[in-house]
Amino acid sequence: MASQPNLSHLRSIFAISIVHLSVLSLFLLVPIVLASSNGLSEDTEFLHSEILRDEAVARLTELGKVSDSEEFLVRTFQSQASVRAENLIRRWMEDAGLQTWIDQMGNVHGRCEGLYPNEKALLIGSHLDTVIDAGMFDGALGILTALSALKVLNIKGTLGKLKRPVEVIAFSDEEGVRFQSTFLGSAAIAGVLPVSTLHVHDKSGVTVQGALRNNSIDITEDNLLQLKYDPESVWGYVELHIEQGPVLETAGLPLGLVKGIAGQTRLKVTVKGTQGHAGTVPMKMRQDPMAASAELILLLESLCKRPEDYLFYDGHCTSSEVQSLAGSLVCTVGEISTWPSASNVIPGQVTFTVDIRALDDLGREAIIYELSNRMYQICDKRSVLCLIERKHDANAVVCDSELSSKLNSAAYAAVKRLSGENPDNVPILMSGAGHDAMAMSRLTKVAMLFVRCRGGVSHSPAEHVSENDVWAAGVAVLAFLETLM
User: Fold this and answer.
1) Stated pTM of the model
2) Rounded mean pLDDT of 70-76?
3) How open is the CA angle 19-22-23, to the nearest 5 degrees?
4) CA 463, CA 337: separation in Å to the nearest integer?
5) What is the pLDDT of residues 123-142, one digit of tens each?
6) Where are the bilayer-spanning segments (predicted)?
7) What mean pLDDT, rounded, does the chain reach?
8) Residues 285-314: what's their mean pLDDT?
9) Given 87, 294, 314, 328, which is the most exposed site by the fewest CB atoms within 10 A?
10) Which among 259, 189, 195 is positioned nearest to 231, based on CA atoms?
């Protein structure tokens, strides 16, 4: 016959259980309280902060230390540091459950085939190279955010449930620092990189082809052409990038949707006058290219600040183009050089560069037309010669409406989940900077998402994205990927 339970013993067990339950409740409550105090929603346990925030930030920091200089961050195309970065990124791709390879332009690829390998693939990417004395978020954030989101899917066991292949590409060159030729990696994938680029050389005389061969990558003109992806195999391209401007910070929001990337023209202006002694040539008899150049630069500033005061509605410009310029036109003089450069000499020649960007290509052309005409008039009036050369042109890119809509919804959901509140609409921004999406738009439809950066500072060690904004970016990419299931 079974013995009767001891009632006092049962009471003790019940009391202890109540204490344990209270302690457990306290531990469960603490993260919720902390999340609320930080302006985060109460469902943070579903937001994978340990991967999308903590690990992503740690990896950004680790990658930010991979540099060709001990004093500052710099990784240029196929440098020793870039090769180390390639291997590091490849390891993180494999950690996310992706199949990896490095192509013959040094791009690092990580791919999962999903449920239907024959479906068109979604490409996600950004660049692993940097400018000189760079920040650690430009380019790298877009790569690592995508890998973090895919790693979450892999851990959840849903990576293989994606209805189309997803491929992350860390492009080998976007900044163009070493060879002064931007988009080497993405342009090769898009099939728009001229084969002649292989023979462009750096300041040390090393060619693009030579730099690749120094790292055991055998690239020829024939297999460069083979790097191009078949447009029929690609569904679209998405890129996440720091804003590099102050709009999101002013709006108080971590994410913004990009409506398009400004077209760009670079001019080289050479003004030739008469060289002379600074102290002996009377002012009225001078043909001074420096003074003329100063007037030309001020003309550029005035025209680009108030294009409506200079442009006329004729065959070169319409009212709609003038209106579009008002919100997107920016013009900059970046370099100035004189010959000879001496304090006691009137220079014989001045050369300066002009960078003109606008979202409307016809409007940009109208600005160049008007600027050139007025520059020639000023030079004629001052009796100096003026030569204007177009050194670079890139058409504006308009982001795809379908992809952008999905990305916008994902960004909205991310901000809502992290804040616990319904935000205003996600800001719609224009990109004044060039991105790999410009090259990839020649292959497929593109969309972009911007992430807030402190002070709008980029291309600088002061470049900074907060940990929670890295988290928001990761949640948005994850939400976007989940729409593919």
Assistant:
1) 0.82
2) 98
3) 90
4) 29
5) 999 999 999 999 999 999 99
6) 12-34
7) 89
8) 92
9) 314
10) 189
Token output for 303: 């025209």
Most confident of 73-87, 407-421, 423-437: 73-87
**What is the structure's pLDDT at 423?**
82
Token readout for 60 is 């950004």
Question: DSSP readout, 13-30?
Answer: HHHHHHHHHHHHHHHHHH
For tokens 């979604």, the residue is: 122
**Three-state SS sequence of the chain:** CCCCCCHHHHHHHHHHHHHHHHHHHHHHHHHHHHHHHCCCCCCHHHCCHHHHHHHHHHHHHHHCCCCCCCCCCCCCCCCHHHHHHHHHHHHHHHHCCCEEEECCCCCEEEEECCCCCCCCEEEEEEECCCCCCCCCCCCHHHHHHHHHHHHHHHHHCCHHHCCCCEEEEEECCCCCCCCCCCCHHHHHHHCCCCHHHHHCECCCCCEHHHHHHHCCCCCCHHHHHCCCCCHHHEEEEEEEEECCCCHHHHHCCCEEEEEEECEEEEEEEEEECCCEECCCCCHHHCCCHHHHHHHHHHHHHHHHHCHHHCCCCECCECHHHHHHHHHHCEEEEEEEEEECCCCCEECCEEEEEEEEEECCHHHHHHHHHHHHHHHHHHHHHCCCEEEEEEEEEECCEECCHHHHHHHHHHHHHHHHHHHCCCCCCCCEEEECCCCHHHHHCCCCCEEEEEECCHHHCCCCCCCCCCHHHHHHHHHHHHHHHHCCC
